[in-house]
Here is the input.
Amino acid sequence: VLKGISCFIVCVLGYGAMYEPIKTNSAIVVKKFGGTSVGSLERIANVAARVIADQKAGELPIVVASAMSGETNRLVKMANEVDPYYRGPAYDMLLASGEQVAISLLAMAIEKAGGKAVPLLAHQVGIQTDTIFSKARIVSIDTKKLLSYVEKGIVPVVAGFQGVTADDQITTLGRGGSDTTAVALAAAIGARECEIYTDVPAVFSADPRLVPRARELSRISFEEMMEMASLGSKVLHFRSVEIAAKYKINIHLRSSFEAREGTWVVSEDKMLENPVVSSVTHDPSTVVIKLYPVPEGVGFLADLFTQLAEKNIVVDIITQSFDDRGQRLNFSVPEEDLAQTELLLAKVVKKETSVEIMREMSKISVIGVGMKNHPGVAARFFQIFKKQEVPVHLVTTSDIKISAVVDKDNLKRVAEALHKEFDLDV
Ligand code: ASP
Ligand code: MG
Here is the structure.
């Protein structure tokens, strides 16, 4: 995960530097509407009106939509009832169906409101992916057809979240993947910007449901947003930010219920200032797995993590240590991958190793590009845990973040205290 981040960082810290305008000249704007924005027929009609108004104001819109809210979860639930372990073409085809419904209704609504629109599934656009079902990555996008519609004043309404393999299988990009469809389209076309419409007005310095004193951020850097996305903030799909950073696509995250601007996700040189910590992010549910003792040496670790990788399980934090009885290994995985992980552990772990699974864990992180040249952030971070008497189970850091795994019960308390400590409270 971190590899992607480090390769694009240009370490120019623009303190009080020029305030570059965000908008460029192209009139094409990719507009992505999330599940709640198309959550009912009334909301779909609102979106249609908004798209037409923007088009009249001179924009050339390309719309991307997610499934109506709750729909993908409903499909996942049915799939799990049939077979919780199945992953493959049938699962992806099922999950992708939600977007088909949303784009059809939205295209109809645009036409009803006097505009011109065409609904397009991934295979009709030519959004080609690799063959990793449920976590597919886009490999290419054919922009010809899209552009020909745009030129004629017809709004393409593209299904988010889905792709097609070279041999015509439907794939999906991972939960929340419509953002990635939108940013990838914007990059492929060279759009002016990518608007992500959601039910929140902006990116906040923390999840306001957890930290009521969280503030709205007017700008945030790609790098910080990537950390936020990979650390559990559900605001944007991780891959979407990675692509935006790589191709310098400004993302404008805003509410579909309000006209005002939200948060711009931009490159670091467009930031006004770099606070030491710009946000406190959390992942409410993670699972810590403790294995002790495991066979000495790195052979066991290499085999275990290779097998987890083969199952596409993203291992997050790993710590390893020795004591007189042998090697201890702790690592964390997302809750949704626990069933697969347990199956695999049952196969690879020998009888003499005890396996402890700690559920009901959360990860709390502080993120900020300013951390790179401010010492003492870790000290302030751990002082808070000491004051709050919150035990820490695992820790990990990068040059712009520090994360700790804590018991779910302690999450709120420690999040609020960290938010205050780093001067983020409103
Ligand atoms: N509908 C898909 C999901 O719920 C994709 C998305 O919403 O971005 O994961
Ligand atoms: Mg989303």
Summary: The radius of gyration is 22 Å.
